[in-house]
Amino acid sequence: MTCHCFIRHAITGDEISAAAHRLEEARRGDDTNGILIAIAALTGKCPARPNFSPDDRKSMYGEGELGPAIDEVGPIEVAPLKRSTPWQR
Predict the structure, then answer these.
(1) Is the distance from CB of 42 to CB of 16 less than 8 angstroms?
(2) The pLDDT value given to residue 48
(3) pLDDT value at position 21?
(4) Which of 17, 62, 80, 88 sits in a 20 to 30 Å window from 25, CA-based?
(5) Which is nearest to 47 in space by CA: 73, 23, 21?
């Protein structure tokens, strides 16, 4: 199963290894944002992880109509931002 979270979680062994490497590189380079993103990829609850339980789903999504429907959504395509500067007008 693939992670569709805002910050993609590391699920497979290769992804975990790569995220740990990115964390180490961010620490060496004093990259605060890189550290936060790598930690978020390595931690937290994710529906794609094998140990994700129905109770986790309720705590993340609630018990309303959104809970069951979240599996049907999948990845969301986002268009790039169009930057407008005075000389482009």
Answers:
(1) yes
(2) 81
(3) 93
(4) 80
(5) 73
19 phi/psi in degrees, rounded to 5 = -65, -40
pTM of the model: 0.56
DSSP 8-state symbol, 50:
T
For residue 47, what are its two tokens?
Answer: 């529906």
d(CA 39, CA 30): 14
Beta strand spans in the chain (E): none
Pull the structure tokens for residue 82. 């169009």
**What integer is the mean pLDDT of 41-67?**
69
* CA dihedral of residues 60, 63, 64, 68 (deg, nearest 10): 70
Instruction: For the chain, give the number of residues.
Output: 89
Q: Contact at 8 Å (CB) between 3 and 50? A: no
Q: What gap in Å lies between CA 53 and CA 45, rounded to an integer?
A: 10
